[in-house]
Amino acid sequence: MFTFIESYGRVAIDDPTMGPEVDATLKAGDARLKAAGFAARSGWLRSPVTGAGSWLAHSTFLSGLWIKNQQRYRTLTTSDRATLTSYFQKTGAWRTVGIVPGVRKAWPEGKYFGLDHIYDSTHLGYQGPYFSWTPVPDQFSLEAFQKLEHGKKNRDPIMAEIILASSHNPWSPIAHMIDWKDLGDGKVFYKIKKEGTNPTEVWKSAKRVRTEYRKAIQYSLDSLTEWMQRYGDDKTVLVFLGDHQPVPTVTGGTANRDVPVTIVARDPKVLDRVSNWGWTDGIKPADNAPEWTMNKFRDRFMTAYGPQGG
Predict the structure, then answer these.
(1) Which of 173, 193, 248, 300 is the right S-S partner for 253, CB 3.0 to 4.6 Å?
(2) Which residues contact 241 (CB under 8 A, 6 or more apart)?
(3) Structural domain span for residue 234
(4) Are 210 and 17 contacting, i.e. CB atoms less than 8 angstroms apart?
(5) CATH classification of the domain holding 127
(6) What is the pLDDT of residue 307?
(7) Residue 308 within a domain
(8) Phi-psi category of 179—alpha, beta or left, where left has phi over 0 and alpha has psi -120 to 50?
(9) Which is nearest to 142 in space by CA: 94, 116, 107, 178?
(10) pLDDT tens per residue, range 162-197
């Protein structure tokens, strides 16, 4: 699973106001993963974009090329450049799927990325409300992935690209975690949305924007680590990362473009393959953990796990 958390940037961890709250969420996530038999390693990647342009970050990460503008994106998606996802497809042994709740119309580029099947916002079974920009809450998207693909019996191995959307600007209103058994068709979220904040009011105050951003990141992290605890197994390997830093209202205009990146697995051999990366134990990268440009990840991942890695 390659999973992107929208706007999950270094500021969420390093900021003196937001950091302690996010740190508590990361510690709780580490604890639930450890209880389920998982371990993790984390580092930093430098995104080509900040504040917006998620698809440029996604394509940089997957292609191993520095895609910093739309022209480069168009050139890439009409090329034959192999991506992390297409590598899996080309083996013929993996089913490759995209869970893209933020996509609301045709996405022809999905074919370039080597995805056998794409589930956009209209194909996840969600009958609940939008949360401002976000068509489907993260917890529901992950549950849909479980029902539609991961939880099927006698299935082929799956490689999934999952692009979570709940931490997308404007971060108001945001969903919160509920019992997984109560998700149903998503109509339960109407009440949750009604109880949420009003984005017009939130955006009158930079302090409130930062608070709601922090809550959205916590929700996305909780959704992902709870999913792993609930549904992950001995063969599940999760790579999750931010796509870019949030807007200057949250970052204060810093030039830093770092995002966290984490690998989670139950099989110790998986993390042994990256023991020479110098990454931090757990799902929170240390301040001095290695920082790579995002385009470097593809080749290092394939060296560790591809044919040349044994």
Answers:
(1) 248
(2) 3, 4, 5, 8, 45, 61, 259, 260, 261, 262
(3) 2-303
(4) yes
(5) 3.40.720.10
(6) 72
(7) no
(8) beta
(9) 178
(10) 999 999 999 999 999 999 999 999 999 999 999 999
